[in-house]
Design a protein that fits this description.
The chain has 747 residues and is an alpha+beta fold. The protein is built from 18 helices and 37 strands. A hairpin with a 4-residue loop joins β7 and β8.
Length: 747
């Protein structure tokens, strides 16, 4: 498209120089990101334009609100400006715009436009599509604003539809015409984190000739303003050619949205915004560099079919095989990209943010984020504390700013890990007080009285296991604050899981009084939240060695793990990929492969990690096997591709299977830690550990401490096609307890 207003401005020149200067030192990994990965199946990813952790994700939607964007669809219903999690944890989008021609159609189905996949393209910070009706659209974004450019074919009527109903549950919405180039409005939605208020302010590059606002499907004649749960609008042009729309968002006010818009997109220079978005992703993706990942692929020569040839032998035909290393790098850098789409910056450009109940505050010395998506088990917190401690402190401050003890308790994993890694910049005492307030409520559901949640309560087993873990987090926090007596009490409650473990069956079961409920099958789901008895069979990451003893020792523990990874049953439709009972979509399963480290056959961990990575991740639209809205599934891939994973916050990193010839982590203290596995360049079947070196010296542990990583260095893994049991059995075993401390990555 040809739409620009100030393509030669000084800011763009300086940005270009900065990118090229930086590129001399760091490689540009942005071309390796495929934003379509995870957009099919249950991945719940979006291919639209965004910046790292940006408030805006300007993206196409192809179906009903519960589907968002699906790669397999061939029609688009509009372009929305933000994505958030609804009350069920599924992503929804809001503030939708859609270009149309001819008669104005406001309904979802009638305004849809079809397209061919070959005319749809996307990259970091950019998306474009050409519809079959000849309308072309380009999208790009800044942190708090988005720019749409619509190229209309010659037509007497060209329209832009604004739909405030599309998305999750709408509590209220409002739109107002300011003048013939400007609109403003708001939308209040129900989300998993409570009510979400989003304001917008839009400016058009050309004046619209007419407009109409509809409430519940009926156009309000002559009205400039309307509100309700079903509000839609159209603006109409006469053969306008290109129309650009820049839209600012805010969670504070429409005035804040306007300020954000003017601060971040002051004009309609699309290329400048696109370059800035790419530069932002360039900087974030440069935190890690991976090389190789598979043997180099030779050319394969095939003879042509045998036919009569008077000139001699037929010339061979060269077949180009896929570059498997490049495909793995696509998955890796796209995973990095996905982990940086949330949590979203939720403060305005001037630092103002909403605290709820029409109250506001100003972030002083930090950026305020909507941190609810971080409240997940496992890999997400590990990745953040390792690579981005400054942002971790901001996340924790954001959590503390609006949480009165009622937040998602899994967020405290991030806090405990930050304390263990000596990350500064937040109030640890306040974090502990907030966690205590929440646990006082949860523990009184049965843990204090009976030692478990009674079986007549919904998800009783899951709750008992979760609450035990949360109490363990509180014990670690209390211990770090020198509150010894309180730590001991939380340690006692953290052992409550023992009361629902049935030694006879070897599973956690619902309990009434002092008796386990019968009959019981491991595939039962009644007492478990989003899972069955198998999927919760090891859900005590803080106490695995004790669970091992209760199961009957190492052999019995290993046998149960074998059953976990090899038992096939029917699974819920919202999850695509399983290895036995394992799925990365079940966050409390994420550490399961590493439990083999406690057995006499720890090499099985490498075998299953290799299987999971190859079965459940792929460089295509269906390459994610579960809801990756919060980036957790992608974070699991990153950590396991690096080759280490922690069972608990502040714990040792268990050694797994590095997936690349070389991976380099640029640490925040300006040091680097590299992980090398030369075996990946020899054969894809090299997935058993044969030897370990740390800084060129032999290493004899099946774990590595944060302090070893934080000081920088070189970790080398030697792999082969056959399990080396003698080598593995001689390695010092890790522990599920919180053992390690080390220098902070941020001073």
């Amino acid at each position: 498209m040809k739409f620009t207003y100030s393509s030669a401005c000084l800011a763009a020149m300086l940005l270009f120089i900065a990118i090229n200067s930086s590129a001399q030192k760091k490689k540009d990994h942005t071309p390796l990101v495929n934003t379509f990965i995870g957009t099919a199946g249950s991945g719940h990813s979006y291919p639209g334009a965004a910046t790292p952790y940006g408030m805006v994700l300007l993206t196409p939607v192809t179906g009903a609100p519960q589907n968002g964007y699906l790669y397999t669809d061939s029609t688009i219903h509009g372009f929305t400006h933000a994505v958030y999690a609804d009350a069920a944890g599924l992503p929804h989008s809001e503030i939708l715009f859609m270009p149309t021609i001819g008669t104005t159609e406001l309904s979802l189905a009638k305004r849809a436009a079809s397209f061919k996949k070959k005319y749809e393209k996307a990259s970091v910070g950019y998306y474009t599509v050409a519809f079959n009706n000849k309308i072309e659209a380009e999208l790009t974004a800044t942190t708090r604003a988005g720019l749409q450019v619509y190229d209309f074919p010659t037509a007497p009527k060209a329209n832009v539809i604004i739909d405030l109903q599309y998305g999750g549950e709408v509590i209220n919405s409002e739109i107002e015409v300011v003048n013939d180039r400007e609109l403003r409005g708001s939308r209040t939605s129900a989300t998993s984190g409570g009510q979400r208020q989003t304001y917008f302010y839009a400016k058009f590059s050309k004046p619209f000739k007419t407009y109409g606002i509809a409430v519940n499907g009926a156009v309000q004649v002559g009205q400039k303003k309307a509100s309700g749960t079903d509000v839609k609008m159209y603006v109409q042009f006469d053969d306008p050619g290109e129309v650009a729309i820049r839209t600012g968002l805010s969670h504070v006010s429409a005035a804040g949205a306007l300020k954000n818009l003017d601060a971040e997109i002051p004009d309609f220079d699309q290329r400048k915004i696109q370059k800035a978005a790419k530069a932002a992703w360039f900087a974030e993706l440069s935190k890690m560099e991976v090389i190789g990942g598979a043997p180099p692929m030779p050319r394969v020569e095939e003879a042509t079919p045998a036919t009569y040839n008077p000139y001699g032998r037929p010339s061979p035909r060269v077949v180009k095989l896929p570059d498997f290393a490049a495909l793995k790098q696509n998955v890796f850098y796209t995973a990095m990209y996905h982990t940086m789409l949330t949590p979203n910056i939720a403060s305005d450009a001037d630092g103002t943010y909403s605290t709820g109940n029409n109250q506001t505050a100003k972030a002083e010395g930090f950026t305020y984020y909507n941190v609810h998506p971080v409240a997940t088990f496992g890999a997400r917190y590990q990745l953040l504390t390792l690579t981005d401690p400054k942002r971790v402190a901001d996340f924790i401050k954001s959590y503390q700013a609006v949480n009165n003890g009622n937040g998602d308790l899994a967020f405290n994993e991030l806090i405990v890990d930050a304390l263990a890694k000596d990350i500064k910049g937040f109030d640890a005492d306040k974090a502990y007080i907030q966690l205590r307030a929440a646990l006082d409520v949860l523990n009184n559901e049965g843990l204090k009285q009976n030692g478990f949640i009674a079986g007549d309560k919904p998800a009783s087993v899951s709750k008992t296991l979760y609450y035990s873990y949360y109490n363990w987090l509180a014990a670690q926090m209390a211990r770090s604050l020198k509150k010894t007596d309180e730590a001991a009490e939380y340690d006692r409650l953290a052992s409550s899981w023992k009361n629902v473990f049935n030694k006879t069956t070897g599973f956690f079961q619902a309990k009434t009084g002092d008796k386990f409920q019968e009959p019981f099958k491991p595939v039962d789901t009644v007492a478990y939240e989003r899972g069955n008895g198998w999927q919760y069979a090891f859900m005590v990451p803080h106490d695995e060695e004790v669970l091992l003893d209760m199961m009957g020792g190492k052999d019995a523990f290993e046998e149960k793990l074998d059953g976990f990874f090899n038992t096939l049953t029917e699974h819920p439709t919202y999850v695509d990929g399983f290895t036995g009972q394992f799925s990365v979509a079940y966050l409390y399963n994420n550490f399961m492969p590493y439990l083999y480290s406690f057995t006499e056959n720890p090499q099985k961990a490498q075998s299953y990690i290799n299987r999971i990575i190859n079965q459940l991740y792929a460089p295509d639209a269906s390459g994610l096997s579960g809801n990756d809205y919060n980036g957790q599934i992608s974070a699991w891939y990153i950590m396991n591709s690096l080759g280490f994973y922690s069972l608990v916050p502040g714990g040792q990193y268990f050694i797994g299977l590095p997936q690349f010839d070389k991976a380099t982590i640029s640490l925040p203290n300006n040091k680097q830690f590299t992980i090398a596995n030369g075996g990946t360049a020899i054969t894809r079947k090299n997935f058993y550990l044969q030897g370990l070196n740390l800084d060129k010296s032999s290493y004899n542990k099946l774990f590595i401490n944060y302090s070893d990583i934080a000081k920088g260095g070189d970790f080398e893994v030697f792999t082969g096609t056959m399990a080396n049991k003698l080598f593995m059995q001689d390695l010092e075993k890790p522990t599920s307890k919180q053992q390690q401390t080390g220098p902070a990555a941020q001073k």
